[in-house]
Design brief:
twelve-stranded antiparallel sheet, mainly beta, globular, single chain
C-alpha cells in the first residue's frame, strides 16, 4: 500500500482516529500511556513519506509505511524503513532552539539481522530489532481496559 493510499485512508478516519501515546520500534515517547497525541492532518512528502501532524505542533514522518491498521484504540504501522518524530519542548515557543527530534532508521548487516539506529539530539544508539516490533504504535490503552473489565 502506498503512502498516498495510507494517507487518504487515515484522513477519512481523522475525527475518530486514536488519541494516545506514541511508541516507535518498541520505545515509548515518554511513559507508556502517559502522553495523549491527537492527529490533526495526514499528508505525503516525496511520494513515499507519510506525515502525520499533531495538535501540539509535533510531526511524525514514516518512510515506506506498510501494514497499517487504525481505529479509535490504536494506529499501528507494522513495517517502515524509518520513522522521525519532531516536536518542540512542551511549554516553550516553537523556535529552532526548542526543536527536538528522534530519528529511527532500519539497517541490515551481512547476516541479515535488522538493526535500529536511533538519533536523539546528539546521541546515536544502535540496537538489534526484534522481528515482530511495529514501526509505530499510537495507543490509548482503552482496548486493554475494556478487555480486562468484568462483564
Amino acid at each position: 500500500m502506498s503512502a498516498q493510499v495510507v494517507a487518504e485512508e487515515l484522513r477519512q478516519q481523522l475525527p475518530d482516529l486514536v488519541v494516545g501515546s506514541l511508541c516507535m520500534y518498541g520505545e515509548w515517547f515518554g511513559r507508556p500511556f502517559d502522553n495523549q497525541h491527537r492527529i490533526v492532518d495526514v499528508t505525503v512528502e516525496d511520494d513515499d513519506i507519510l506525515v502525520m501532524s499533531f495538535s501540539e505542533g509535533e510531526a511524525l514522518r514514516v518512510w515506506s509505511p506498510e501494514w497499517v491498521t487504525a481505529d479509535r484504540f490504536e494506529l499501528r504501522i507494522d513495517h517502515a524503513r524509518g520513522v522521525r518524530w519532531d516536536w518542540y519542548s512542551y511549554g516553550s515557543p516553537h523556535t529552532e532552539e526548542h526543536h527536538k527530534f528522534i530519528d529511527c532508521r532500519i539497517q541490515s548487516d551481512e547476516s541479515e539481522q535488522l538493526w535500529l539506529v536511533s538519533v536523539k539530539g546528539s546521541r546515536r544508539l544502535r540496537r538489534r530489532l526484534g522481528a515482530n516490533v511495529p514501526a509505530v504504535s499510537i495507543a490509548n490503552g482503552l482496548r486493554r481496559e475494556l478487555a480486562d473489565s468484568p462483564d
